[in-house]
Amino acid sequence: MTKNRRDAVFIGLLFLLPTMIGLSVFRLVPIVWAFAMSFMRWQIFDTPSWVGFDNYLHILASPTSGRVFMNTLWFMAIYVPGVIIIGLVLAVLLNNGLRSSAFFRGAFFLPYISSTVAVVLVWKWIFSTRFGLLNNLLLWFGVSSPPAWLADPVLALPAVAIVSVWKDSGFFMLLLLAGLQTIDTSVYEAARMDGARKLRQFFEITIPLISGSIFFVLIMALVRSTQTFEITYALTGGGPNGASTTLAFFIYENAFVHFQMGYASALAYLLCFAIGLLTLVNFYFRRRWVHE
Asked: At what angle do helices 54-61 and 261-289 cross, to 10 degrees?
């Protein structure tokens, strides 16, 4: 390596140094420390003590943890199909090149970049038992006893999922819209000449040609569905009686309410393992339905 080449490499590394330091201090060190904490019992103000796999065994044996995992799966079952279907429908409707499409793209994307607190305040009013827009509509349609959406153990989690789907659908719409705009319009013209109707074009041309984008959106939605926190915290606080507590919120409760740092770290690594497993399963089945 010549001297000029060595100098160029040295200068490049010098410019990378601040980023590498920040990455190490604020990402890599916390990841390693959290993994070590997951094998400890540490109530933040006490001296940590090594307990091995006790935290993980307690999580697997605890009925509360089991309920939280089921809540997370139930939230995922609503959120993932919701954002993909709504995002895809909006993307198809706006993939027309009209001048007004730009306005509607911005309008549908706006909830995603809006303040979560502002969004939750609006939805709290919509879900309000006595004065909410939704229950007043139900009364108008003849429902005599509308439900208490946020106070009902059965409906609280679906309410959180509905708000999350509404807020995030615009983001997934843009991802799918980008995939739609890569399709050559001559493919549709040939299909029309062969007599294919719109619905058949959608299922036999559009879906296969954007299957790569759908796969990417699926992975993103699965990961995001396990990380919901802000909306749960602001809308229901995990209630009533833990009915809307998902895994990310449960980690927060154990870490920053009960100060069980070791237990929370073990939960975080189980969450990480679950996300990794889901991703691997999806990559395994990817070849069966994703068209390159």
From this structure: 70
Q: How far apart are CA 52 and CA 268, in angstroms?
A: 16
Q: Any idea what DSSP says for residue 47?
A: P
100 pLDDT more than 80:
no
Tokens representing 4?
A: 């000029």
> What CA–CA distance (Å, rounded) separates 166 from 70?
22
**What whole-number distance in Å separates Cα of residue 268 and Cα of residue 250?**
10
pLDDT digits (tens, 9 = 90+) for 248-267: 999 999 999 889 999 999 99
Q: Hey, what are 196's tokens?
A: 């294919």
Rounded to two decimals, what is the model's pTM?
Answer: 0.89
Residues 6+ apart with CB under 8 A from 286: 215
Spatial separation of the C-alpha atoms in residues 76 and 224, rounded to whole Å: 9
pLDDT in tens, 152-181: 999 999 999 999 999 999 999 999 999 998
Which residues, at least 6 apart from 206, have a Cβ–Cβ distance to it below 8 Å? 92, 180, 183
Q: What pLDDT score was predicted for residue 97? A: 67
The CATH number corresponding to 52-289 among 2.30.110.10, 1.20.1530.20, 1.10.3720.10, 1.10.1130.10 equals 1.10.3720.10
Residues 6 or more apart in contact with residue 287 via CB below 8 angstroms:
none
Choose among 101, 79, 104, 13: nearest CA to 231.
79
